[in-house]
Write a structure and sequence with these properties.
With 227 residues, the chain is of the alpha+beta class. The protein has eleven helices and nine strands. It is globular and about 55 Å long.
Amino acid sequence: MIRETEEKWREAVRRALELEPDSMTIYQMELPYNTVISQDILKKGATSPIADWTTKRRWLNYAFEQFLAHGYEIAGSDIVATKKKPCRFIYRDGLWHGGDMIGLGVSSFSHFGGVNFQNAHNFEEYVRIINDDRLPIYRAVSLTPKQRLIREMVLQLKTGTLDTAYFQKKYAVDVWNEFQPVYENLRENDLLQRDNGTIRLTRPGLLQVDHFLLEFFEPELRTVRYA
């Protein structure tokens, strides 16, 4: 099954390259806890039909290598972009530097005025609330200054490069010193490198960045699940 899927994946990458896109986003598929597949796994002990993380990282790394060989560069943990012309990621760069965004639709996440909130994650409930002329907000949290810093830091790490001077100027915090045990552990495991004021993820770090970002969160938030 995995071998057959891997062949299809390689073919999908080849076809994507033929399109010569300006950029390509390649996600490692995750299963939110409120999906039918996740519930069957958690409650019924079903076997996951999704490839394991080692396999998904290998597939993503294969895609990276193929795009790099055809004049692209890695622009983030899941993005490749052409080097033939400048590519701007306005949504990502704005939101990941503290900008506001209102998400529309079921289970959408938003960030506005320092508050993170999520819409109702059940379609029927979402429609019912909308029909009652109310905002379909399921949950929300007002971020503390430190939580805003952490939010921007972990999001910017997903680009593969972090400028510590940005946080020193905006928050008056040296993020390397503030989170030194985490950063040192990641460096010892060859997941990132430090070059003066620049923190740069290695290729293995890019491939698994979403899994170690939790280590920067405050302890009480590390076990919070999203739907």
